């Protein structure tokens, strides 16, 4: 049958050769021997309809024109389906120097990366295009005969707020984005021959049952599920009360002076306002049910566990026994809704012969009687406050030393001349006292005032004492006492929790321990107020003494014509305060008992006295009264350094007891030995907790063979978790073969998708997305004694090519799933070029 079309008719050939007529205007269709039509041709490159005029042909299924149109359309559809889509460039950075192995490391929530600059020996955190966010150097000079420490591994916190940096000196330093100073210092293998091998950092849910999952009662008295929006739900009142922060109503803690006080890393971390606010920020509402877990492995097989950034739970020996050599941790994986983590151990990081998959159970996360996030945040804040108090005490010590050092040198220069006098005073105190009362100055005093001290020396003396006392006053008033107030608030909260859970023995501390710490904090507060009062008195009396001293210098050095003018100034002097300063403050200040060095004998004697459990605050008050009245008293007990050291020691014991209680519940499951019969070149691990099998999560190691670069192995170890304890893993495996592809790198994107970086036969790079679960994947029970693993081909993958204008030969890849935690970010694929200086970020087009 032939058709004759009048008007706007569009004819298109479908995918399978069907003719389609579309009525686009008023048509008159008649059956005639010939027709005149317009055929629609879909351009394969642009996807735009092209109108092709055709002459009058006889058109039927057997006609050559029909076959030609059908073949042409089908061919172009097939080409369109076979042609990979192009990745979209998100950002690009050119590094100053070649990135070492394992670098750069990309942030999961921000478009940031970190790399180690071996030339500058600094850790460089940047955002594209090479915009510096921070540059951190190791603090302090290396010991004689040793190399400066360098970065060996880095790991981002899951929320992107911190960067954990493992240094070759065996210390993990946590660096915040707001400052390049190390916020926390976690010794792992410091002072040993071991090195940090791996840092794993994950966030886990605290509560197994969220209030959102519980039924609530509606206004009509009927029970309903929490399926409404958050705005319709009542708040979790017990949780809100538990996390109510009282110290937010207090004035903010002030940064310490920039002058150095101490040689350790804490000397500079508290000197910036941004650093102070970053360190002492309260937990956010979305973190109330979460706790951060950090696992740090060392190459001697040990493992250190930390919670909430810096609270050390303890160190564990290697859970894997394999000879020869001790396997150590090289990878870590966790799931935010599970308390069981997956650890991967090997005897070497480079091409190990086999791996050991070890489940690590942390039942304390869900079984703690106290909200673990609340408890851990209070403990780590207390740790930071104690570090802050320690640095404040060192600054106070420095200011006190500056106050006394220069005047002592001036007084020592005249003391020898006075002792040689045949008659008269033998010391500077009675000599100056004599001058104030009588106006007469002995010859050594006259020479000292006019020649040695003079106007310049007086200005130096005045500046040293006034600035030192004012700085000391500021440190006590703005830093020392406010930090002690916050310590008292935290300890009061911990004591209330201990009293509420007094029938539990798994919280790790007691009311007695907290009360003892509160007693020491009270002693420090008492000493702080005493220091503040004495500083104010000494500063007032010194101003009077300084005015009188300048008057005497001018009087003794002036001519007789200026004596009358000086006599008028003398009438304004406060002689009583001058005499009081000379008698009480000139050579021995009441402040010396708080800052001067204490002998080791007095230190040990007072420490032994306190270990008897006596009430510290009452004893200190009695000793201060004795000291003020001139009686013999305990020297060390009144010293600021002694009290700070004592509260630090007692707090460390509290932290140790709580860590031991937590450590006892940590359990390592049976290790699964994974082998493919050849050295392993690539590896990634993930815990998948899919909705299809929510009660049985899977540990999924992903490894590749050195010699067969077109295939990789996927292992699946399923465990049952009950009360935070996992069962023995049941492992299956499969081998996936890629046709005409050479695998460069592979990573898990999420629980459902693998990202494969491959090169084609023409050496062009391609990114393929492969499903973790597929009907084509044939898993077989894994037998560690046999290397026979079923091999399957995987076709029909989503493939993406690198745009021609950004062509590169990538050697390393990192991937991150889309996130909105700190701003909307799509799926990102990071690639490092073979020159190890080009770092590009691509996204997958929608």
UniProtKB/TrEMBL annotation:
Record flagged with keyword Cell membrane: no
Segments forming domain Anaphase-promoting complex subunit 4 long: 356-558
InterPro entries xrefs: APC4, Apc4-like_WD40_dom, APC4_long_dom, WD40/YVTN_repeat-like_dom_sf, WD40_repeat_dom_sf
The keyword Lipoprotein is annotated on this UniProt entry: no
GO biological process: anaphase-promoting complex-dependent catabolic process; cell division; protein K11-linked ubiquitination
UniProt keyword annotations, A-Z: Cell cycle, Cell division, Mitosis, Ubl conjugation pathway
Annotated spans, Disordered: 215-235
Pfam families in UniProt: ANAPC4, ANAPC4_WD40
GO CC terms in record: anaphase-promoting complex; nuclear periphery
Source lineage: Eukaryota, Fungi, Dikarya, Ascomycota, Pezizomycotina
Protein name, per record: Anaphase-promoting complex subunit 4
SUPFAM superfamilies: WD40 repeat-like (SSF50978)
Domain Anaphase-promoting complex subunit 4-like WD40: 107-203
UniProt source species: Metarhizium album (strain ARSEF 1941)
């Amino acid at each position: 049958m032939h058709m004759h079309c009048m008007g706007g008719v569009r004819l298109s050939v479908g995918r399978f050769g069907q003719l389609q007529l579309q009525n686009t205007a008023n048509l008159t269709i008649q059956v005639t021997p010939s027709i005149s039509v317009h055929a629609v041709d879909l351009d394969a490159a642009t996807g735009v309809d092209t109108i092709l005029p055709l002459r009058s042909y006889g058109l039927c299924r057997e006609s050559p024109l029909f076959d030609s149109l059908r073949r042409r359309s089908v061919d172009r559809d097939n080409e369109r389906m076979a042609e990979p889509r192009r990745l979209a460039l998100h950002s690009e950075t050119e590094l100053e120097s070649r990135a070492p192995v394992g670098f750069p490391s990309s942030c999961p929530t921000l478009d940031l990366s970190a790399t180690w600059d071996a030339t500058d020996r600094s850790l460089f955190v940047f955002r594209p295009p090479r915009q510096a966010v921070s540059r951190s150097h190791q603090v302090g000079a290396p010991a004689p005969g040793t190399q400066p420490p360098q970065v060996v591994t880095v790991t981002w916190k899951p929320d992107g707020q911190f960067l954990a940096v493992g240094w070759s000196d065996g210390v993990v330093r946590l660096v915040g984005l707001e400052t390049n100073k190390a916020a926390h210092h976690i010794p792992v293998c410091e002072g040993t021959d071991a090195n940090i091998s791996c840092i794993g950092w994950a966030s886990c849910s605290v509560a197994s049952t969220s209030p959102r999952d519980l039924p609530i009662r509606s206004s009509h008295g009927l029970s309903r599920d929490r399926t409404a929006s958050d705005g319709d739900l009542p708040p979790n009142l017990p949780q809100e009360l538990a996390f109510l922060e009282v110290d937010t109503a207090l004035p903010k803690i002030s940064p310490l002076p920039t002058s150095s006080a101490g040689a350790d890393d804490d000397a500079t971390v508290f000197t910036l306002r941004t650093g102070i606010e970053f360190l002492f920020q309260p937990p956010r509402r979305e973190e109330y049910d979460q706790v951060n877990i950090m696992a740090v492995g060392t190459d001697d097989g040990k493992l250190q566990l930390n919670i909430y950034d810096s609270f050390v739970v303890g160190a564990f020996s290697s859970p894997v026994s394999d000879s020869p050599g001790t396997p150590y941790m090289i990878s870590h994986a966790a799931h935010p809704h599970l308390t069981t983590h997956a650890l991967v151990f090997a005897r070497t990081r480079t091409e190990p012969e086999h791996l050991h998959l070890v489940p690590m159970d942390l039942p304390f996360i869900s079984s703690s009687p106290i909200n673990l996030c609340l408890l851990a945040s209070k403990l780590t804040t207390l740790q930071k406050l104690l570090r802050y108090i320690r640095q404040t005490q060192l600054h106070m010590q420095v200011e006190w030393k500056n106050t006394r050092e220069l005047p002592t040198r001036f007084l020592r220069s005249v003391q020898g001349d006075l002792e040689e006098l045949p008659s008269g005073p033998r010391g500077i105190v009675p000599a100056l006292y004599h001058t104030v009362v009588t106006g007469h100055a002995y010859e050594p005093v006259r020479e000292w005032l006019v020649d040695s001290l003079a106007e310049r020396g007086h200005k130096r003396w005045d500046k040293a004492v006034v600035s030192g006392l004012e700085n000391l006053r500021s440190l006590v008033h703005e830093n020392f006492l406010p930090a002690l107030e916050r310590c008292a608030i935290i300890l009061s909260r911990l004591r209330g929790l201990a009293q509420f859970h007094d029938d539990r023995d798994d919280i790790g501390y007691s009311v007695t321990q907290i009360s003892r710490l509160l007693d020491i904090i009270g002693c420090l507060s008492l000493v702080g107020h005493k220091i503040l009062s004495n500083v104010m008195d000494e500063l007032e009396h010194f101003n009077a003494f300084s005015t009188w001293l300048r008057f005497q210098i001018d009087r003794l050095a002036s001519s007789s014509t200026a004596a009358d003018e000086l006599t008028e100034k003398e009438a304004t002097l406060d002689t009583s305060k001058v005499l009081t300063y000379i008698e009480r403050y000139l050579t021995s200040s009441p402040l010396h008992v708080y800052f001067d060095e204490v002998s080791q004998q007095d230190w040990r004697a007072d420490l032994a006295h306190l270990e008897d459990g006596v009430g510290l605050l009452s004893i200190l008050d009695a000793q201060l009264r004795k000291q003020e009245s001139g009686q013999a008293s305990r020297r060390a007990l009144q010293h600021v350094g002694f009290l700070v050291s004592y509260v630090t020691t007692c707090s460390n014991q509290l932290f140790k007891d709580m860590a031991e209680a937590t450590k006892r519940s940590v359990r390592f499951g049976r290790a699964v030995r994974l082998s493919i019969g050849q050295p392993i070149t690539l590896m990634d691990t993930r815990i998948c907790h899919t909705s299809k099998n929510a009660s049985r999560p899977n540990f999924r190691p992903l490894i590749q063979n050195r010699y067969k670069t077109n295939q990789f192995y996927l292992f699946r170890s399923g465990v049952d978790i009950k009360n935070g304890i996992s069962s023995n893993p049941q492992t299956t495996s499969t081998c996936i073969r890629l046709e005409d592809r050479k695998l460069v790198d592979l990573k898990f994107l999420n629980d459902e998708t693998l990202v494969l970086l491959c090169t084609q036969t023409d050496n062009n790079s391609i990114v393929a997305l492969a499903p973790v679960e597929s009907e084509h994947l044939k898993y077989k029970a894994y037998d560690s004694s046999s290397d026979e693993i079923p091999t399957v081909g995987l076709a029909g993958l989503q493939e993406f090519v690198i745009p021609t204008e950004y062509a590169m030969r990538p050697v390393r890849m990192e991937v991150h799933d889309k996130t909105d935690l700190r701003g909307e970010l799509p799926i990102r694929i990071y690639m490092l070029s073979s020159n190890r200086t080009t770092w590009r970020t691509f996204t997958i087009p929608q």
